[in-house]
């Protein structure tokens, strides 16, 4: 498909440009170190006259990981019905096809799996239970890690928590946020994932579970600063290069973070969390890059829905945030970040069988007039919000031609 080949060309050029950008300062640092070493050699008196020994230039150790974060993977009743086949199976073909190249281009892709896999009967809001095929579709489009801690974690009670973990384990996707018991949490949390010798610690918490008690002995990570403080200290003892928190927080359908979000973000940064990527409001909220003690820290309050059937203003799209982390002999740093916008086309609008998550640059001529109007309205509103409130981060420029 032309879309995919053009994206791969764009992605390859983007990686090339990033590598040039990231390596320039490393070369300069290496050159200066070599110059100092050569000067020191000549000034110590240890060098013998006529010696042909040369100081070998040593490249500094360099590691890189590119992460991308998606929003809330929702599954409402109309989505389940759209995926159901005549033989009773479920097919999500086409839902994520146009986002898959973007997701798979990252080294590690993470999203919030905001449904349970409690088995049939399947149902949508208010207590979600999705077909197993939905998880497979999320894996097939490139997500490597799924968070399971959100306000719908207990929708199908202990059975749902247990079976969601079992299905994710059986299909080989890593996950964090809910556990069968305290012993399992102690063993698996904080969550560590590695790429190119960079150890990344992920933390995941939710504000609540919609008033449904968490059945014993299951564990859902709730936002409790006493617990989070202990988890951060345990995380530090695991010698990660970076700690990233993924809180489920905020007010639904509100485009700006509330005081609780702002205060908790400040609190987590002060205790050693490096980056924060949030969700839950079903709409996007501002993104900022903060500089703390000379280092950059990414804060995304809410990425919005990744896919859903919601049609309220600003709920029919979202944003994916990417970041590049570089590790050298001096530490691990955020060297690059950006975001891209997408919009969800629903069957009621497109006339097609299934839902489609479409990048903002999806060709106009492939959308009908109603789709174009709805997509353009979402993009216009979101870009206006981000232009006013975002700090230190820009939208990625991805030009797609058919």
Description:
It is built from 10 helices and 16 strands. It has 402 residues and is of the alpha/beta class. Strands 1, 2, 3, 4, 13, 14, 15 and 16 form an 8-stranded mixed sheet that branches. Strands 6-7-9-10-12-11 form a 6-stranded mixed sheet. Strand 2, helix 4 and strand 3 form a beta-alpha-beta unit. The longest helix has 42 residues. About 13% of the residues have low confidence.
Layout of SSEs?
Blueprint: H1 2-43, E1 63-73, H2 77-83, H3 100-104, E2 108-113, H4 132-140, E3 145-147, H5 157-171, E4 174-176, E5 178-179, H6 182-188, E6 191-195, E7 198-206, E8 219-220, H7 225-237, E9 242-248, H8 259-270, E10 275-277, E11 284-292, E12 295-303, E13 305-307, E14 317-328, E15 331-345, H9 347-350, E16 356-359, H10 369-389
Parallel strand pairs: 1-2, 1-13, 2-3, 3-4, 7-9, 9-10, 10-12
Antiparallel strand pairs: 1-14, 5-8, 6-7, 11-12, 14-15, 15-16
